[in-house]
Amino acid sequence: MNETLDKLRLARTEGVGPITYRRLLAHFLTAAAAIEALPGIARAGGRETPPKIPSSREAARELDMVHALNGRIVFTGDPDYPPLLNLLPDPPPALSILGDLAALHGRAVGVVGARNASANGQRMAEALATDLAARQLVVVSGLARGIDAAAHRGALHVGLTVAAIAGGLDQPYPPEHATLQAEIAARGAVVTEAPFGTAPQSRHFPRRNRLIAGLSLGLVVVEAALRSGSLITARLAQEANRELFAVPGSPLDQRCRGTNDLIRQGAHLTEGADDVLANLPDDPRRLGLARNPLFAHDAGQLSDERPLWEAPPDPEIDIGAAQTNILALLSPSPTDLDDLVRRSGLTTGAVSAALMQLELALRVEFMPGNRVCRL
Amino acid sequence: MNETLDKLRLARTEGVGPITYRRLLAHFLTAAAAIEALPGIARAGGRETPPKIPSSREAARELDMVHALNGRIVFTGDPDYPPLLNLLPDPPPALSILGDLAALHGRAVGVVGARNASANGQRMAEALATDLAARQLVVVSGLARGIDAAAHRGALHVGLTVAAIAGGLDQPYPPEHATLQAEIAARGAVVTEAPFGTAPQSRHFPRRNRLIAGLSLGLVVVEAALRSGSLITARLAQEANRELFAVPGSPLDQRCRGTNDLIRQGAHLTEGADDVLANLPDDPRRLGLARNPLFAHDAGQLSDERPLWEAPPDPEIDIGAAQTNILALLSPSPTDLDDLVRRSGLTTGAVSAALMQLELALRVEFMPGNRVCRL
After folding, report:
1. Read out DSSP for B207-266?
2. Is the ipTM above a cut-off of 0.85?
3. What secondary structure letter does DSSP report for B86?
4. pLDDT tens across B58-106, in order?
5. Which residues make beta-bridge pairs with A161?
6. Rg of chain B's alpha carbons, rounded to an integer?
7. Within 10 A of A206 (CB to CB), how many other CB atoms are there?
8. FRET partner for B184 with CA separation of 20 to 30 A, picked from B44, B96, B231, B264?
9. CA of A244, closest CA in chain B: separation in Å?
10. Which of B219, B214, B282, B284 is nearest to B246 (CA)?
């Protein structure tokens, strides 16, 4: 129980992102030891004030509130952690969950699309979700207005559906979907990365989108304008090697330009559940699972390589020089980690160690899709 | 002039299809000589009554009527014959044409689709045709209600459009498109395989569809239900190695199921003229131009091989036995010519000679797409 509290404290510490969380636990073995080491690491990264680590009491209060809703918090490494999500290079350290954990362990398909969807688009999403649920697939979506809500509703009374949300478990959004969220929790699951009590803000939605993509074997986009949020979810799904599906529509309807473009780029043209089932793999495609060079241990699960951080530290590395080198290469717009390693001329291990310190010092931030940016 | 009349008589002879027409002319050099030889060839194929060859007067009357409308008849081998059509394995021997021959020599795109098209589908077809015409492409269609008419209208006042029709030049179909046909003839061209005076019947439409496909570098299908005529045109276009384009639409609209399926099978998803222009080749794809084994001389234009029928006749061939062999292999449903040659165990030359006699004897018929069937 103490270890659970410490994991939650670590996960909720400012500057501890998914990658640093995993690296700290891998290195220090327990969350308690990692918490003890945090101030020193942050200082080495150039941070003057120590990182704000929640107290055990604060963590216990969050846990209590989640439990009061009959919810749970699961951590990466827990056997209950959603296995598909765990294949991401940067799985969220702590997931707050209402409902049936089994819904997060099944074969799942994301169904997303425009909030201002057409009546036809909503009808399509609902029918598709019903058919997918009837064929034992879990339907994952984002609880938004329009396509998302139609997808949840289509699946609700037939099978399992999962809502990934941007705010805390106690903050359904949009507010008029509070009842829908409760129904989903009763017959499926509601999941979020956000701490209890977090009011959803626009900056939380990319993480919500990444959850939808990461929890699913494939993603169906039903209606989406060009440059819309659903296309960002589609990009995240593709980066996570999930299958991409799109429902075609009239070129005269702006809400179909995004989905048509996805098809043009290779997404499976989807008119119904058959198109999804015919192209849904048993697992995400293997290729690229280990794309994040800082997570070569994912490749290690496939081959026999040892995780990089288990290698003895290289006494030659000047960590301060590495940090300076890396900061010079980064900017506020995200840089690909592969590029960074290549352009730095440093070893992956050196980049990894330097970035962890810099993240804890709040000088860099890891972004979804193997990217990092300077703050 | 006499040779023109004789060509028309030969082309209008019962049992003389496109392939036999070309082979006869290649062998006998003039239409007059071929006409003289016809009864003997038909008899050798097992026909008891001689083939019905139109008289010179009948042919002259047809020519006069076409000329009275300011039309022309062009034959395969004429310099005016549409060059893209000439790349088919079985180009129609005689084309009756109203309007501007230049329209049949430009870079052309077919735009076809459902007769019972939606308002949106017609709007799409019209806008697409306008944009294609504005970019110097000739828009080819079939004068039908719905998509066809919208495509012609969209192109009419911007550039050139060509109507391929099923009946004679004097028989616009549907009748309410008589004015549209006249407008097209005045600013583009109207073309048909059918003799003057032919009332269009359903059996003429496959040839009309083949004209649309054969006259175009690519074919755009705007709205089409599954198993509709537009999909047959699409298949013909594909067999002629033309690019295939399809406009996507809502899966809830039956009129889009055919176009969506074309996209699923590899047609270019098309939202506008840009999609067409980006994928339109300068020439039909070379591969497969010589697929018809009886027309290896098309390959001969690419390489240096001599046409098969210029080879000295093989004295070993028992033409009667070859005919019996071939008839046993054929049935009323079309058989692929490649298959036929392979399964007969005969040389291509023997199959070719036997089929020509059998066609003239009205015992077999060549079908679009390298197929032959028993009558």
Report:
1. HHHHHHHHH-SEEEE-S--TT-HHHHHHHHHHHTT-EEEE----TTSGGGHHHHHHHHTT
2. no
3. G
4. 999 999 999 999 999 999 989 999 999 998 888 999 999 999 999 999 9
5. A139
6. 21
7. 17
8. B231
9. 14
10. B219
The tokens 């300068």 sit on which residue?
B282
Residue A94 phi/psi, 5° resolution? -130, 125
d(CA B116, CA B174): 13
Q: What is the pTM of this model?
A: 0.82
Residues of chain A positioned with their CB less than 8 A from the CB of B123: 252
Residue with tokens 């009491």, as numbered in its chain: A57
Q: Give residue-wise pLDDT tens across range B321-340.
A: 888 889 999 988 888 888 89
Q: State the Cα–Cα distance between residues A34 and A30, nearest whole angstrom.
A: 6
Q: Is A269 an interface residue toward B (CB < 8 Å)? A: yes
Alpha-carbon distance B40 to B37, whole Å? 6
DSSP, res B89? S
What type of residue sits at position B295? F
Q: Measured between beta carbons, which residues in chain A are less than 8 angstroms from residue B275?
A: 264
Contacts of A114 (CB under 8 A, 6+ apart): A121, A146, A147, A222, A223, A224, A225, A228, A230, A255
* Nearest of A248, A245, A246 to residue A281 by alpha carbon: A245
What letter represents residue A329's amino acid?
L
How many CB pairs (< 8 A) connect A and B?
A: 56
- Angle formed at CA A98 by CA A152 and CA A76, multiple of 5 degrees: 110
Counts for chain A of helices (H) and strands (E), in that order: 15, 12
